[in-house]
Amino acid sequence: MAPDRPVLTVDPELINLESKACAKDGVNVTCFDVSVCFTYDGVNVPNQINVDVEIALDVQQNVKRAVFQSSNTAMERFVGYMVNKGTSCSLIQEKAFIQNDIQDKLNPIVVRVKYSLTAPTGVQVGQLTPVLSDNKPTLETKQVSILKDCGPDDKCVPDLKIASASATPEVGVYVGDVNTELVLTAVVENVGEGAYVSTLSLSPPAGVDYIGGDITLSRGTVNCDLLDVDGSKVVQCPLGNPFQGRATAMLRFSTLSLVGADDSLSFLFYANSTNEEDSATQADNTMELAVPVKVKAAVALLGASIPEQVVFTARTDRPSPITKQVDVGPEVTHNYEIRNNGPSNIGSAKLTIMWPSRQKDSDILDNAYILYLLDASVTQGQGQCVVKGSGVNPGGLEAPSTSESTTSASRRRRQAEADDNIEDGSVTDAEKQVAQATTLDCTNTDCVEIECTIERLNPGSAVVQVRARLWEKTLLDAGYQETRIETTAELEVVQLLPASLTADSLPTATHKVTTTANPETVSVTSSSIPIWIIAAAAAGGLLLLILIILIMFKCGFFKRKKPTEYQAVKQEPAAKRHSKDFEDA
Q1: Which element (helix H / strand E) includes 194?
Q2: How does pLDDT run across 302-322, given as a tens digit for each residue?
Q3: How far apart are CA 95 and CA 93, in angstroms?
Q4: DSSP 94-116
Q5: Res. 572: pLDDT tops 70
Q6: Among 372, 393, 165, CA closest to 270
Q7: Which end of the chain is more exposed for a tag (fewer CB within 10 A), N or C?
Q8: Residue pair 490/352 in contact by the 8 Å Cβ criterion
Q9: What is the tens place of the pLDDT at every residue in 149-179?
Q10: CB-based contact 106:273 (threshold 8 Å)
Q11: Which residues are bridge partners to 275 per DSSP?
């Protein structure tokens, strides 16, 4: 057997993927023809021989980019294909389709044909057994190249670069902030020849979670996916195949798991393609973006007086000197709520309370306390309070027993109920005008400073409670009527967590709590009404009643007909009744 021409041919050898002249399953695709030609000749040889032929497409790729039309596979086998003796060509022709959206457009599609003689049969006596020509190999390949805009050398050299990268919000992210997304924007360009199977990739640091994103190209918008590459998470955005021009990627991240181990988050962008770029231009293929990590907290300071109003009483049984707390006056509690509205944790905060303790002229008024301090403590959260100066319970008064507390509370409850039952006319308008309200605060009293330290306050609340008793004798001796006693609290955040991170500012807050004290109102005794006035009023009422009865009698109000008269009227004919009525008239 002596082939005189190439066994394998492909047409065309250079294809344009934009030219889709064939149809596959109703979709236009690019295609090319594969032909295998066998010739057979010799002296004293059989008129026919059989060959086994195998034709394979894209043999150098695992993922095949082309398939045969007849089988929708990348390989065809012909067993015992008959070749006739003579100079004419025994031809095998197949059409191959190129898959749409192939990734590798740089490497050619290699077509391979392998063939061998089938065991000869029917050889007559005296005829020679056919053999393959030693001048022609039994394996042959052809290449189908893909048209690329790569210049005369058909070698595309891209020049990828990341033009810019930025983050929103620009100030950075805050530890504990669950409501704000971190949005990264990157602009990538290719100012060289086509970049094939090109991608923009990003390796996110620990503490952020990828939510989603996309990249805007000249042909539209494409999603960016989170991939697992060798055990590492990588966000990858396809740039194009080939990619030329400019693209903008926007990627969204959550910082819910951010703990603030570092003062910044480092994001590394890098762009690459399957065709090699000149080493001199590869430096701008990567860009690192550092996003600051900070801490901040919004705080609020609230307060309340329990109760809001108290009554001070001039007791005749008050001992002198006072040795027990129950003899001082009603108990007053001021609660201060320190609220951390986040997002970050507070490591340490200081609450300073200025507490009106004594009259400024206390040398004249002996033991002239106002709010006699009993205790200051952190009742919710972590922390402690320190009272500067004379401290709590400066007079060393005896704390009340349970029975004394109950008796004192009952007595003051009865006093409050009695005050509610006092007639409105018990205090004259002139007295109301004289009884002007007095405000006692640190401007006109000696205040004690209470300093409370709050430790490790996560978003939530801590409560400081200050207990005291109103020193009734001071207010009575000073002749106060309605008295407003104001305490002032100032909150200062000392440290936010983690302490190694920068805080934009350390927040502060102030609040005032007011307790209103009123003197016990003495009921004015009502003068008695003379008896003669009561008797005259009763007699007048009786006479008026008799007069009304007489008038009603004269009008016939009390005149009623008997039952028999009603019956007679009912049975009397209508005409007669009418006539009688006329006569009566």
Answers
A1: strand 181-195
A2: 999 999 999 998 876 777 788
A3: 7
A4: EEEEEPTT-S--SS-EEEEEEEE
A5: no
A6: 165
A7: C
A8: yes
A9: 777 777 889 999 999 999 999 999 999 998 8
A10: no
A11: none
Give the count of beta carbons closer than 10 Å to the beta carbon of residue 142.
19
Q: How many CA atoms lie within 13 A of 526 on its CB side?
A: 8
Ramachandran angles phi, psi of 390, nearest 5°? -75, -10
Contact 104, 22 (CB under 8 A): no
Based on its alpha-carbon atoms, the radius of gyration of the chain, rounded to whole angstroms, reads 53
Long-range contact pairs involving 15-21 (C-beta distance under 8 Å, separation at least 24): 15/98, 15/144, 15/145, 15/146, 15/147, 16/147, 17/98, 17/102, 17/105, 17/146, 17/147
More confident residue, 405 or 481: 481
User: β-strand 286-295 against 173-174: which pairing, if any?
Assistant: parallel
Distance of CA 168 to the CA centre of its chain: 16
Cβ atoms < 10 Å from Cβ of 69: 14
Please give the angle made by the CA atoms of 18, 20 and 24, to the nearest 5 degrees: 135
Whole-Å CA distances, 472 to 313, 372, 375: 7, 10, 19
Distance CA 549, CA 401 (A): 70
d(Cα 370, Cα 358) in Å, to the nearest integer?
A: 5
- Give me the sign of the Cα torsion angle 403, 404, 405, 411: positive
- Mean pLDDT lowest among 109-118, 234-243, 247-256: 109-118
Sheet holding 331-343, edge to edge: 297-306, 331-343, 460-470, 371-380
- Beta-sheet pairing, 483-497 with 438-440: parallel
| Separation CA 356–CA 532 (nearest Å) | 58
Q: Is 580 helix (H, G, I), strand (E, B) or coil?
A: helix
**Of 296, 354, 81, which is closest to residue 169 (Cα–Cα)?**
296
Q: Are 139 and 112 in contact (CB under 8 A)?
A: yes
Residue 385: other Cβ atoms inside 10 A? 19
What contacts 24+ positions apart, CB below 8 Å, involve 402-411? 404/324, 404/326, 405/326, 407/326, 408/326
- Enclosing H/E stretch for 436: none
> How far apart are alpha carbons 436 and 119 in whole angstroms?
129
How far is 556 from 553, CA to CA, in rounded Å?
A: 5
Residue 422 near residue 523 (C-beta atoms within 8 A): yes
Q: For residue 453, what is the enclosing H or E element?
A: strand 445-457
State in Å, rounded, how far the first CA of the chain is from the last one: 158
Sign for the CA dihedral angle at 302, 307, 312, 316 comes to negative
In Å, what is the CA distance from 80 to each residue of 35, 49, 117? 17, 8, 8
Taking the model in full, what pTM does it have? 0.67
> Residue written as tokens 């309605």?
482
Residue length, the chain? 585
Residue type, 137: P
Q: What stretches of 147-218 adopt beta strand conformation (E)? A: 160-168, 173-174, 181-195, 198-203, 209-217
SS3 call for 133: coil
Structure tokens at 297: 């907290």
The strand pair at 483-497 and 198-203 is best described as: unpaired
CA distance 400 to 329: 12
Identify the CA nearest to 116 among candidates 98, 131, 99.
131
573: preceding bond cis by omega (within 30 degrees): no
Distance CA 320, CA 62 (A): 105
